[in-house]
C-alpha cells in the first residue's frame, strides 16, 4: 500500500510558476507558434480566404507543391556522433557576401495584400537579421520606399521581362540608383499558371467588394480596416491594375523572351545576375554559360507548371554540372530549418524562402516575419548540431539520403 501525505506549501510553491502576462494578442499568438506550420494556422485565421489561398495555393492540382514537401518529409538524415558542436556557425556567403543564415527572403508579389505593413516589414527584418531580401516586380511598395525603409539591408530586385522593354530598363535603372545589389531575373513565367484557388475565389487586385467579400469582412475586420485606412495599394512597377493576377501577368509579361535576350539585360545591368526558375540540368548550364552569377532551382513554388520537377531533387546533378562556376540556390517546399539544411547537404549553396515568411507576415506583420526568421534560424542550428556539424561548409551528401 502506498503511503500518502498532504503536500506542504513549501513543496507546492516551486511548482506554481505563472507564465508572464502578455497583453498583446499578437505577441501571444506569435510566442505560441513554434513552427512555420503554426504560423500558417494563425495566418489562415487572420486573413480573408482569398488572400490566404493566393499565398498558400499553387497551380492546377497543386501536385508540384505537394511533391516538393513530400520529398523533404521523406528524406533521411544521417547524423554523425561525437563531434564538437558547442558552437554552431550558420553564416554562409551569397554572391560573395555574408548572410547570417543560409537562406534569403524570396520575392513575392502583392505583399501588402497579406498585411498592410508589406514589403517594408520584410526588408526591415532582413536588415536586422542579416538576411538578403528580393523585392518583386509585382511588389506593392516602390523600389525607393523599400530602399528607404532599410538602407543597410542587402536588397535585390526581381525582374520579369515585359513586352515593353523600356519599362524593364527603367526598373533596372531605378533599382541601381536606389542601391540594390543584384538583379534576379525570373524565367519561368512566359504565361500565368492556372491558379485555380484564385479563380474560384474571384481574387483580384485590389479586392472587389462583392457579397462574398463583404461577408468575409465580418470574419476578418482587422484586415479590412487596415486595408481601407492605410495607404492605397500600389505597385513597385506600375501605377494601378483592376483585374485578376493571371490577366495582369499575361498582359505585361513577354512570352517571346529567349536566352539571347540576356545580352539586352546585361546592357542595362552590370551588377550580379541571378536567374530564377531553372528546372533542368541543361538549362542550368545554358544560363551559367550566358553569364549568370547564381541560379535558383525553382518551379515557382508549384505556382506555374504543375507536375514540374521537384527542385531539391535536381540539386546533386546540377551542382555537379555547374562545378562551382556559379552559386546554386533552391526554393519550393521549404517549411523548416531542417529543409534548409537538407538542401545544403544535397549541394545547394543557399536557399530562398517565400511562403514561410509570408505566413509570419499574415500572422503578425513585422513581428510575424521576425518570428518566422527566428524559427527557421533556430531549426537550422539545432539540425546542424544533431547532424554533428558546426558550420555550413561541413554539410555534404554524407548527411542526407533522398528517398
Task: Set down the secondary structure blueprint.
Blueprint: H1 9-12, H2 25-32, H3 36-46, H4 49-56, H5 63-74, E1 76-77, E2 92-94, E3 97-99, E4 103-105, H6 111-114, H7 118-129, E5 133-136, H8 143-149, E6 155-159, H9 165-177, E7 182-186, H10 196-201, H11 211-219, H12 221-229, H13 245-252, H14 262-268, E8 273-278, H15 281-289, E9 294-297, H16 311-322, E10 327-330, H17 337-345, E11 350-353, H18 355-387, E12 400-401
Parallel strand pairs: 4-11, 5-6, 6-7, 7-8, 8-9, 9-10, 10-11
Antiparallel strand pairs: 1-12, 2-3
Helix pairs in contact: 2-18, 3-18, 7-18, 15-16, 17-18
Domain FMN hydroxy acid dehydrogenase: 28-403
Binding site for glyoxylate: 54, 160, 195, 300, 303
Binding site for FMN: 107-109, 136, 158, 186, 276, 298, 354-355
